[in-house]
Each structure stands twice: as C-alpha cells, then as structure tokens.
Amino acid sequence: MNKNDIGLIGLAVMGQNLVMNLADHGYHTAVFNRSSEKTKMFIDESKTAAALPENITAFYEIDTFVKSISSPRRILLMVKAGDSVDAVINSLLPHLEAGDLIADLGNSFFADSLRREKTLSKKGILFAGVGVSGGEEGARLGPSIMPGGSPEAAELLESTLASISAEVENEDSSTARCCSWIGRGGSGHYVKMVHNGIEYGDMQIISEAYSLMTAGKQNSKFRLSNDQASKVFETWNNSGLAGFLNEITSEILKYRDENGGHLVDSILDAAGQKGTGKWTVEESFNQARPVTVISEAVYARALSSLKNLRLEASEHFSKENSESPFGPENTEDIISDLGDALLASRVISYAQGFSLITAASEHYEWNLNPGSIADIWRGGCIIRSALLTPISNAYKNNRNLPSLLFDKYFSDLMNQLQSGWRRTAARGIMWGIPLPGITSALSYFDGLRTKKLPANLIQAQRDYFGGHMYERTDRPRGEFFHTNWSGRGGNTASTAYNA
User: Fold this and answer.
1) Which residues are catalytic?
2) What residues have CB less than 8 Å from 38, skipping those under 6 apart?
3) 388 CB contacts (<8 Å, ≥6 apart)?
4) Tell me: the pLDDT tens digits for 398-449?
C-alpha cells in the first residue's frame, strides 16, 4: 500500500474542511480522531454525499495511523487548545521517530507552543505552531496561514501549507499565497493571537456603528432601519472600509427569519469569547504596548454578558435624550462622519496590533516581518480588508516604522478623518450610546500626538507617597530625583524601575 503524504488528527468542522482542502490539492491524507464515532461519521457522511476523495484514508488506531504516513512524518493537529493538544502529542510520541513533525493548527496560546517545541526538540521531534484563520469556509477553500517554528520544520511544511492557503491578487496583477513562515518558536500562534485581537476590535467598532445608526433617540430624526443600515455597510464595503466583516454585517442586518422579522433583533445581546482577545491584552501588559481598542472590545463583551445587571441598571437611570451637539443635522452627514470614525478606529486597531507584534519580535528575538504578516492577512482570514495593502506597503517602505501612523499614507489619512471621528464620538456621548472602541481609539490617537501628557503629575504623586523618583525636563534622561514634598517623608528614595 502506498504511504500517505500527511496525517491529520481532529475531525471537528475545521479539521474536516481542512482535510478536504488537502485532498483537493492532491495530498494523500490519513485521518484520525480520538473518538472513533466521529471518524466513522465523517467517512459515512462524505460517502453518502459522494464527496469522499479517494486520497483520504481513515484510521481507528493511532499506531496504524502513524505507520501509514511516509517518513519523515508530518502530522497536523486540529484539536481544542489546551490539555487536549498535550494529550494527543503524548499519544503520538511512542509511535514517532526522530525527524518527524507535529504541527498544531489550533488556537493555542503561544507560550504553550514555545514549551511544546522545547520539549519535543529534546526527543528529536520537530514542532510547528500554526495559526489558521478563515473559519470553516476558509479551511475548505483557502485560509490565511501563519506557521512558526524551526527552519527544519519550515522545510518540511511551508510549501504544503502555502499550497492550501488563500490566494490574492497583487497590485501588479500577479498572485500571492496568504502563507509564509512567520519565525521561530511560538511566533505563528503569537501573530494569530494578535490577529484575533484585532478581530475583536473590528467587530466591536462595527457593532458600535450599527448601534449609532439603529438605536436612535426618541426625539431624533436620525434612526435607520436594519435594511437601511445594511445598505450603508454595503456602500462602505465599496470604499476604503471594504473588508470581510463589513460584508457579512451587511448580510446579517438584512437577513430575515421564518417569521419575516430581522433575525439580528432576536439574538440576545450577550457576546461570548474564547480567550484570544484576553490573551492579546494580557501580552500587551507584558510588552508595555497599549492595545486600547482590543482591550475595550474584550471588556465590552464582558459587560454585554452581564445581561441581568444591565436590565436592572436600565431601570435606575434615565435615558439620555440630548439633541445633537451640532444642531440640526442631515442623515448623510452623520453617516459620512460615522464612516470616517469607523475607518480611523480600524487604523488605530491595526496600528496597535502591529506595535505589539514588533515589540514581541524584539523581546522574543523572532525577527518578524510586519509587511509579510500584512500580506498573509490580505486573504482567507476574518480581518481581511482593503487596509492591508497600504499597511503592507508601509512596512515594505520602512520595516522599522516606530508606528504605522507615521507612514505618510496613514498620517495623511488620519488628518482627513479626524473631524468626522470627533463629531461621531461627541454624538455618541450626548445621545448616551456607548462607543468604547471608537472613543478609546480617539483617546489613544490624541495621547500619541500630544507633546506633553499629564504623566508628570503622576510621577510627582508616585514620588510623594512612595519615593519612586522622577526625571526632569531640564536634565538628561536617565537621571532620577526625589523630593521630600511634605517635609515629613525624608530624603531616602525608592528604586526607579518600570515593571
């Protein structure tokens, strides 16, 4: 019997679609699932639908599964992140040989990938942590793929992953695959983590735009129906705001259920989350790089889940009924400003995400290429959007940009969008409509462009109560001073450091 080219473990929705994608590209693939029933169900349903390719072979024992794969073996894991990944790896180890490769394609935490690579390398086994984005449709037709690991792992796996990834058209009409080796260690899963964080931010600011359009006020002429809001998102999707999330939002808002009503209105306003957004925020603390849009998106989901508390609070506080802070306005101007605010906030979210990636690249010594990462996200993934081509160009022009916003294209764009962005934030505040993503993005932008922030007072407060010292504007950086502010604190200072 001919050996299989590759093996895949995990036959949930993503695994099933990915293995069909592999089969489409000519790979003879062995499949296995810890639950034999799921394997049998996949095979039986595929046969019933006459959709089972001849180059997919199912196995029900781990040893025969491993033996069926040609050496050096390449085994892809599509299982739930966490302990399940370690359990599958441990079940594989007795059957593997030095030089074989295990690749984790789930949503694993990057630190777990670092640990697994280190542990497996001592046993002579290669490991790759691979970020995959695009949902079930992407897995089937071509996802965005972010693989990380050693050069030896890249040699065995990169071309295969690239062949099944999404394909996009370049500005010169050539085509490119949305996959390239990210770097060493857990870098692939790190980049996927930040991708998901940006996804959280995008979803939040889009939902805020929807809220501002449809929530309205009792005495306001500006209140759009779901169908009208759908048309706005459709129009935006033919502009610089074009992107997958805008596209599906337009479709969601006009979708009607079996009773003829808009389905979105029947969906409970309590958003779930699986942890990648939270991981991004936690890691931003470690790297001291603010990702305020992402953090507000995480907190907004948490607040949404407190449904009963919000229902109670709504009975305690009056509803804001203020008129527009700008007097009588027409609908077109409000929508135009809202589009500017959405685009500006999205730029900030990307800028913050790439700032975190570049900080991590230096910290973990990964030597990541921001322009290449932007290219990978241009197709197949959830955050694919029109912005990614100019982002890629910005980093190709200057790989060491201190901030994406310093690129001329983006600095000019932000200057153009500021006025509408500010008016939108003001409307939300006056109308009592929460816009945490849009307003936090604006606050970050204002903080970044402000020459002197009130942090001097914070440093004075820290020195007053804790002797934490401060630097002076009239002395060189790196010199620290302490003042006995009250005359009772003494002249002994604490050490100066930043956590």
Assistant:
1) 192, 199
2) 11, 12
3) 374, 375, 377, 378
4) 999 999 999 999 999 999 999 999 999 999 998 899 999 999 999 999 999 9
